C-alpha cells in the first residue's frame, strides 16, 4: 500500500463586499482587522485585498445609493467561507457581500503573497457633499436642470427654420381667412 502525500488541497475563493459610503476610517480598519483575524483563525490564507473605491450602486440598498467596494481573495476550506460571511452579516457597515469559488484544488504552499497585496486602503469621503436627488425629482415631479435646458431650445412659439417671408405670408393668409381686406 502506498500512502498518498499529506499535502492539503484547499479551495480558492473571492469575496466582494460593499461598505456604506460614509464609513469612517476607524470602522474600515476594524472591519479589515476582523476579516484578517477570521481568515487566520479558520486556517485560511489571505492572498489579496483591494479597495475598488466609492461607486454608485446599481439600485438602492437599504436607502444607500453609493458604497465602497472591497475585494478579498483567500484560500481555505468551506467552513472558512461560512465564517467570513457570518462576520460580514453581523457588521452594520456592510451593505452586501458575495463569495465565489475560483478554484477547487489549490496548494497553499505554492501560493506566494506579496505584502503590498494585503494592505487595506481607506477611501476618503468626497470633499463636497454629494447632491442627493430629492424624492420629488426621483418621481419626476420636479424638473431637472438638464430638462430645463433641453426645453429652452424647443421654443414652440416660433419655428426655428422659418424665415421672415414665411411669417409675413402666414399673416396675410390668416387675415384673408378672417375676411379682412388690405
Jot down its keywords.
alpha+beta, single chain, 5 helices, 2 domains, Alpha-Beta Plaits, 182 residues
Question: Which secondary structure elements does this structure contain, and how are they paired or packed?
Answer:
Layout: E1 9-20, H1 25-41, E2 45-61, E3 64-76, H2 78-90, E4 94-107, H3 135-138, H4 145-152, H5 164-178
Antiparallel strand pairs: 1-3, 1-4, 2-3
Helix pairs in contact: 1-2
Main pleated sheet = 4 strands, antiparallel
* Fold-level CATH name of the largest domain: Alpha-Beta Plaits
| Neighbour order of strands in the largest sheet | 2-3-1-4
Rg over C-alpha atoms, rounded to the nearest angstrom: 31 Å
Q: What is the annotated CATH architecture of the largest domain?
A: 2-Layer Sandwich
Instruction: Classify the secondary structure makeup into a structural class.
Output: alpha+beta
Q: Oligomerization state of this entry?
A: single chain
Secondary-structure element series: EHEEHEHHH
Fourth CATH level, the homologous superfamily of the largest domain: Ribosomal protein S6/Translation elongation factor EF1B
Tally of individual helices: 5
- Write down the CATH class of the largest domain: Alpha Beta
- For the record, the count of structural domains works out to 2
What does this structure look like?
- With 182 residues, the chain is an alpha+beta fold.
- The chain has 2 domains: 9-126, 2-Layer Sandwich (Alpha-Beta Plaits); 137-178, no CATH class.
- Helix content is 31%, strand content 31%.
- The protein has helices at residues 25-41, 78-90, 135-138, 145-152, 164-178; strands at residues 9-20, 45-61, 64-76, 94-107.
- A 4-stranded antiparallel β-sheet has the order 2-3-1-4, covered by helices on one side.
- A hairpin with a 2-residue loop joins strand 2 (45-61) and strand 3 (64-76).
- Helix 1 runs antiparallel to helix 2 (78-90).
- It starts with 8 loop residues before the first strand and ends with a helix.
- The model has no long low-confidence stretch (mean pLDDT 77).
Amino acid at each position: 500500500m502506498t500512502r498518498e502525500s499529506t499535502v492539503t488541497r484547499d479551495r480558492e475563493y473571492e469575496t466582494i463586499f460593499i461598505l456604506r459610503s460614509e464609513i469612517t476610517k476607524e470602522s474600515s480598519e476594524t472591519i479589515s482587522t476582523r476579516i484578517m483575524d477570521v481568515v487566520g483563525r479558520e486556517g485560511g490564507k489571505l492572498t489579496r485585498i483591494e479597495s475598488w473605491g466609492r461607486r454608485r450602486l446599481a439600485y438602492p440598498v437599504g436607502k444607500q445609493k453609493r458604497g465602497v467596494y472591497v475585494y478579498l481573495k483567500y484560500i481555505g476550506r468551506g467552513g472558512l467561507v461560512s465564517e467570513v460571511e457570518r462576520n460580514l452579516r453581523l457588521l452594520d457597515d456592510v451593505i452586501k457581500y458575495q463569495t465565489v469559488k475560483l478554484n477547487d484544488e489549490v496548494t497553499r504552499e505554492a501560493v506566494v503573497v506579496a505584502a503590498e497585496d494585503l494592505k487595506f486602503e481607506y477611501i476618503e469621503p468626497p470633499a463636497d457633499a454629494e447632491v442627493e436627488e430629492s424624492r420629488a425629482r426621483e418621481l419626476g415631479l420636479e424638473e431637472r436642470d438638464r430638462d430645463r435646458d433641453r426645453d429652452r431650445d424647443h421654443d414652440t412659439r416660433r419655428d426655428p427654420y422659418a424665415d421672415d417671408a414665411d411669417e409675413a405670408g402666414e399673416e396675410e393668409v390668416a387675415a384673408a381667412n378672417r375676411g379682412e381686406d388690405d
